[in-house]
Structure formats: structure tokens, C-alpha cells
């Protein structure tokens, strides 16, 4: 007990790797089977500190088969302090990419129970574990959904503690990056109504950023999924954020609206425009993010096509109404400025729109035969990435009572 305690404190210092490499790990793993509950607790604590360090330290733990004996510690009769330590250690172990031989489903079975805990520390670490697994293991998103974590994670979006809300929303953001069927599970569990509340109220910046990211991922899906975003009354809060928020939140809100506009039907386009999306989308064209600008251009193209289709039903209509609004709001100038951008794909799409909808307004000096970019083509993606990262696991030194 005392020896494990000393090693726990050393493992919480700058000498964690020394503890991992000196032969302590197999003995600590063996102590997880001790009949003495205090010794088991101390061994868990020391292993958790080792897991919180470098990937090489976690590799040593995996090499000595730590997962199964650690999972065996989770029992119905566990005291809360021990359960906290065990969940924290398991969360640290799941940080980063797990070896292929590690079975994720048994971990998720335990986590799916502990995300119902009333203890905030246990709850937070359980949610961080879902987040880590969904980003570090192939097919883990489906495994997490199969384990039944989704309904409770969505419920936890309304949790009062930011220490719980952050890992919850980041885990849901990872899940929202899955395929349409996986995203549909989130929608069916009511995530959009919760996100509408998060976006419309005063929450920390990192929470709102992740909420926008989830909406963005959902909006890349089917027209029915875009309709679900509309039905949840999320578009107006997104537009407010795009106009008034800090730069990084504006960017995520821009992704969400651009993705929605890119895949929307004519009726959905009409709704987006009625809510005032055109002017802020035109402002996105000035952003220094080629992928986002290109996706925004795709959204504007879809909007303009819808406007053109609607114009056909009217007699003597002189101009596409959406093109007219873009012209009056200064969007045409921003499109013309894109002729000088260093991206062939952006240049080509911008020129296509200028020639298709504003041919008479475009200056004669804007000769389309003169390229506005170099010969290289930027690789463009149409979905935003889960960029926000949590802090790495922290080592904790044991303390005498």
C-alpha cells in the first residue's frame, strides 16, 4: 500500500515515464486483483496517473493487459471515491487511438451506465470517455449508439454544470460527424431542440461553438435533416451568431448556414432567405478560409438557382430576386473580389455565378479568360471539422487524509 502510494505521487510528477518503464506496471496490474480494497484503489490511482502521460506510457499499460482487470473494478458496491478514481483512470486510458486488440464494447457498456451518475466528476469523465472513443477507434460511433448512450447524452445538454456540458456536447459533436443514419439517431432523440436553447441563450463560447458544429454536421445530410434544423427554429439564432459573435463562433455558424443552403430544397431556400441569411452569407465570402468560402459559394449557387426557378413562373420578370438582393446588399462586389483569390476552384465558381446572374453588371474589364489564380487547385471539403480539443488527461497526486 505505501509503495503504491509513493509510486502514485512520482507518477504525478515529471517522472511518469520512469515509473512506467521501471517494472511497476505489471505489479500494479496484478494488484488490481488484491483482496484489499484500499490497495486496489491505490493501484488504480497510480495506473491512472501513468495513463495521463505520454502515449508511450499508455502503450506500456496496454502491453500489460490493463483494460480487463481495470474494467473488473466497476462493481455495484463501489464507493463513490473509488468509482471516481476508476472512471478517471479509464478515461485517461482511452485518450488517443486505442490498439486494435482493445475491445471497445465492454468499455461502452460501463460508460453507458455511468453517464446516468449523479456525481458530476464521474459523469464528466464518462462523457470524456465517449468523446475519446468516438475519435480514436474505428466504428466507435456506431458502437456508442448501440450501447444506448445517445438519449442520455442529449438529456445532459441541459445539465447545469459546464464541467459536464463541455464533454457532453463534444461527444455529441463527434457522433454528429457520422453518417446520415447515425445523425438521424441524434435528431430522433431531440438534440436539435436542445441546441436551439443553447444557441439562443448566454452560454460559454466553447459550448456555442460546438453547438454550431453539430448543426453544421446535421445540415450536411439529407433534405429531411435540413428540414429538422429548420423546424427546430435554429436558423434565426445562427444568423444572429453569424452577425454578432466572436470570430470562431461566426465561422462555425457560417459553416452551418452554408451547408444548409447548399443542400436545401427550393422551399427551404425560401425560408432561409426569409430569415435574412443572404447578407451574412455574402459577408462570409471575405473570410480567409478557402474551404468555407467555397461551401458558401455552393450555398449561394443553390439559392440563386432556386430564385431562377421561381422566376420562370412570373411574366416579364427582369431579374432573379435573390440576385437582385445580393447586388443591392454589396454581395456582388465580394464575388468580384474572389477573382483575385489564390484558388482555382473558388475562382471558377465565382466566375460562373457572375456570368450566370450578373452578366450586365460585371465590368467589361473582368475578362473571364484572364485567370485569377495559380495552376494549383485547393482541396475543398464541404463539412467543418471537429477542431476544438479538450485538455489532455491530468495526472493527480494522491494525498493523505
UniProtKB/TrEMBL annotation:
Region (Disordered): 360-401
Annotated GO biological process: protein transport
Pfam short name (any one): Arm
Domain of life: Eukaryota
Keyword Transport appears in the UniProt entry: yes
Intervals holding ARM repeats: 23-65
Entry keyword annotation includes Ligase: no
Biased amino acid composition, Polar residues: 372-386
Keyword annotations from UniProtKB, A to Z: Protein transport, Transport
Family designation: Belongs to the importin alpha family.
Protein name: Importin subunit alpha
Native organism: Urochloa decumbens
Lineage: Eukaryota, Viridiplantae, Streptophyta, Embryophyta, Tracheophyta
